[in-house]
Specification:
- The complex is a heterodimer of chains A (99) and B (144).
- Chain A is of the alpha/beta class and 99 residues long.
- Chain A has one domain: Transcription Regulator spoIIAA, CATH 3.30.750.24.
- Chain A is 39% helix and 29% strand.
- The longest helix of chain A has 16 residues.
- Chain A is globular, with a radius of gyration of 12 Å.
- The mean pLDDT of chain A is 97.
- Chain B is built from four helices and five strands, in the order βααββααββ.
- Classes of the chains: A alpha/beta (99), B alpha+beta (144).
- The interface between A and B is medium-sized, with 21 and 26 residues.
- Magnesium ion (MG) binds next to helix 2 of chain B.
């Protein structure tokens, strides 16, 4: 997964489809990116994510939990309208910033 | 109600088939010239139901998932996702938002809520040890 790091923030570029099938490898890659405890903010760029279902909610909330434990945050950006509906439905917007 | 067209797929309960099933059903629906939004709704709902069949229905032993779709003359698409897996003990509870029996696998319990949001109707029939059938309906709004 492509990413960039600026000080305490990692931006990860999610591509392709985020479903139960791909969740495990995406989860693993994201966990590697935030492994370093000095990472305090994870920004998920969803511009090139073509599909997401409820498995994506689990993946995003799971990473949120890791970061929240160290006082950090998760944000998402470039969400399409469809993914945004899933976001709002699950109330994720209350803990994950949409930028 | 008259059936204009129908199809049926049978496949193994492996995660790779989640993508296959949602793309296949959406390709079937394309003949009605639906909007992209409608296609995305169908894809997402099928993905939820098929994923549930694979990860919950066939959690203990693999099996066959059946997906069928029927296009009606009144412009309604009916989709059925069937497994012969473990079944659901309490359907009403299972359909509650955030209810999941697999929290340790980072599931959010939002699959049924997503199906209900994206489809016009969702019906679930299930009996423990026998399997589960999810029936969904969607009115197809056509693109100009
Ligand atoms: N086909 C099925 N066979 C057996 N149990 C099922 C089936 N579908 C759903 N369930 C049960 O219903 C619960 C809720 O399903 P739902 O899709 O809403 O959430 P989830 O799959 O647990 O989480 P998510 O979809 O957010 O990853 C599941 O946890 C499971 O216990
Ligand atoms: Mg589910």
């Amino acid at each position: 997964m492509e990413f960039d790091r600026r000080r305490d923030t990692v931006t990860a570029y999610v591509t392709g489809e985020l479903d139960q099938c791909s969740a495990q490898s995406i989860r693993r890659e994201l966990d590697q990116l935030i492994e370093d405890p000095s990472v305090r903010r994870l920004v998920l760029d969803l511009k090139n994510m073509r599909f997401m279902d409820s498995s994506g909610i689990g993946v995003i909330l799971g990473r949120y939990r890791t970061l929240a434990q160290r006082g950090g945050t998760v944000a998402v950006r470039n969400m399409n309208a469809h993914v945004e509906r899933i976001f709002l439905l699950s109330g994720m917007n209350q803990i994950i910033q949409i930028i | 109600m008259q059936t204009i067209n129908q199809m049926k797929l049978e496949f193994s309960s492996v995660p790779e088939n989640e993508g296959f099933a949602r793309v296949a059903v959406s390709a079937f629906a394309v003949q009605l010239n639906p909007t992209l939004d409608v296609l995305a709704d169908i894809k997402t709902a099928v993905s939820e139901a098929v994923t549930n069949a694979i990860v919950h229905g066939y959690a203990e032993r693999p099996g066959t998932v059946t997906v069928s779709a029927r296009l009606r003359s009144d412009g309604i698409l009916e989709i059925e996702v069937i497994d012969q897996g473990r079944g659901i003990v309490d359907i009403a509870q299972a359909m509650q938002p955030f209810f999941t029996t697999q929290p340790e696998k980072e599931r959010s319990g939002m699959g049924f809520s997503v199906m209900q949001t994206f489809m016009d109707e969702v019906q679930v029939e299930s009996s423990p040890g026998q399997g589960t059938t999810v029936r969904m309906k969607k009115r197809i709004e056509t693109a100009e």
